[in-house]
Amino acid sequence: MQRTHSCGELTEKHAGKEVVLSGWVSNRRDHGGLTFVDLRDRYGITQVIFNPKTSRSVQEKAKELRDEFVVAVSGNVVKRPKGTENKELSTGAIEVQAKELEIVSRCEPLPLEVSGKTLANEDVRLKYRFLDLRRPEMQQNIVLRHRLGKVVREYFYSRGFLEIETPFLSKSTPEGARDYLVPSRVHPGKFFALPQSPQLFKQLLMVSGFDKYFQIVKCFRDEDLRADRQPEFTQIDVEMSFVSEENIFEIVEGLFKDIFKEIKGINLKTPFPRISYEESMERFGVDNPDMRFGLELVEVTEAIKGSGFKAFSQEIEYNGIVKALNAEKCGGFSKKELDELIELAQVHRAKGLVWFKVASGGLEGPVAKFFNEKILKELASKTKAKENDLLLLVAGKEEVVNAALGSIRRELGKKLGLIDDKKISFVWIVDFPLLEFDEEEDRWQAKHHPFTSPQEKDLPLLEKEPGKVKARAYDVVLNGVELGGGSIRIHRGEVQEKMFAALGISKQEAEAKFGFLLDAFKYGAPPHGGIAFGFDRIAAMLAGTESIREVIAFPKNKAAVSLMDSAPSPVSERQLKELKLKLDLEKKGKK
């Protein structure tokens, strides 16, 4: 039997028609001699009724059906009896009276539920991903991802952008993470690298005069594992010539307006607000702030100078700072809750967390005795403390203090129910530092990448005071999640040389790693800039899920392993021999 309609297509207007449906058995119910089957495909569910009065043999055959059998059914579309309609289904006003049934394939006992509400653990879901993807929730996520790609492409097409593919097999260049290397059989001892991003190629496309480029592209990074990180991911890559930051902001805001309008039916307000990197770190402790709630950080270093509390005074003496967070109306937190906050601070390398509860008589806490009344009053004033508030203080290096209190702020936002899940809060973070100092390697590193342009006014500082140089870089953040980042690029050779010098990259090293780009800059490079967005992350936020694995058809697990096909896996000796490679693996237990 050849399918004539999908399982989500039939309505009352089809009543009286003979149809053929094909799909999976989502549910079977026997009632008073009648057998009811919910037949499912990716378009929806249609109820099929097997009546012995229509065909006893077909009704008997229907009793063989089990969940996830694949079947074909022919029959007549009829309106459901009044009062039995299912308003939750688009097909809920009709049912199909079966005249013929074909069991196309049978299903063994399932390792996980496909139609039910019980969700298997993630490892089981990923091992049997082909089954997990049958779940309506997963199918909706993958369809949403498709729709997102469609909106993105139509938006850029309508604005004159060209979609241009860049190579997957390219030269290994340092971009902040380890490359995935691909050995060359034709050139033994040499390797391609899978791209961490198309950064260099999209800049070359600007040198080539294509003016406006975009691509929805796969990228690969061999990074340390995190809960929501994938070794291969998808990004929306954009580059334009003869543009300023304002041009890029306008294009990006227009893109998100289209995305939210088409997929969520929401009209975004533009332009998005902007705050500097410095302000974001001061107020929120992070460069991807969730601005849907308050609990902002306040520096109190000056207010508590001269206290008898050594843990603070010693940090201040070594150029540390002290910041406070007023957890309003949390004075009743238990010891267990406070201990959890202390542990969270220590996860971010803070030595500890000091707390004061605000009572009618002032600030109370285990270390209150080390602070005189004047200091406590000033601390209460700076944090706008009120009775029954809870003050949380961390001292140390600025980056440690910000990381600890920034993380605590987010945790409290969730714990206290301060976050409105329906609110959409975009913000641009601008004026990033161009460089950051790596103490372990004792050298400056690019905050974004080596091709980010310094702000023109800061160019004279690049050689003598590199830490003060601001970049022409920007990130777009939604509800505390960085969706994308980019910059205006360096297009002048002499500025790029200064940047390499600041990073400790010699002319010889620069030529070896980036020679082809530097050569291109010698032949008329236009001013250009761009941005890249995490496509998976945008899809996840639109789907209302925290994990990008929920919007990727075949993701890896937290250990970067594909449980379904057991990748990565060993290869044969013959394959290694063809590549002129030998493995040097330590035996288990051997030091």
Any overview of this molecule?
With 591 residues, the protein is α+β, with helices and mostly antiparallel strands. Among the domains are: 12-105, OB fold (Dihydrolipoamide Acetyltransferase, E2P) (Beta Barrel); 293-419, GAD-like domain (Gyrase A, domain 2), CATH 3.30.1360.30; 421-525, BirA Bifunctional Protein, domain 2. The chain is built from 15 helices and 22 strands. The protein has helices at residues 56-62, 122-127, 129-132, 136-157, 199-207, 245-264, 277-284, 310-317, 335-347, 373-382, 398-415, 493-502, 507-521, 535-543, 573-578; strands at residues 18-31, 34-41, 44-50, 70-79, 94-105, 162-163, 180-183, 191-194, 212-220, 232-241, 274-276, 297-299, 321-327, 354-359, 362-364, 390-396, 426-430, 435-438, 443-446, 473-478, 481-488, 528-534. The chain has an eight-stranded mixed beta sheet, with helices on both faces. A five-stranded mixed barrel has the order 1-2-3-5-4. Helix 12 (493-502) packs antiparallel against helix 13. The longest helix is centred in the N-terminal third of the chain and has 22 residues, at 136-157.
Oligomer: single chain
Percent in strands: 15-25%
Mean pLDDT: 93
CATH homologous superfamily (4th level) name of the domain at 293-419:
GAD-like domain
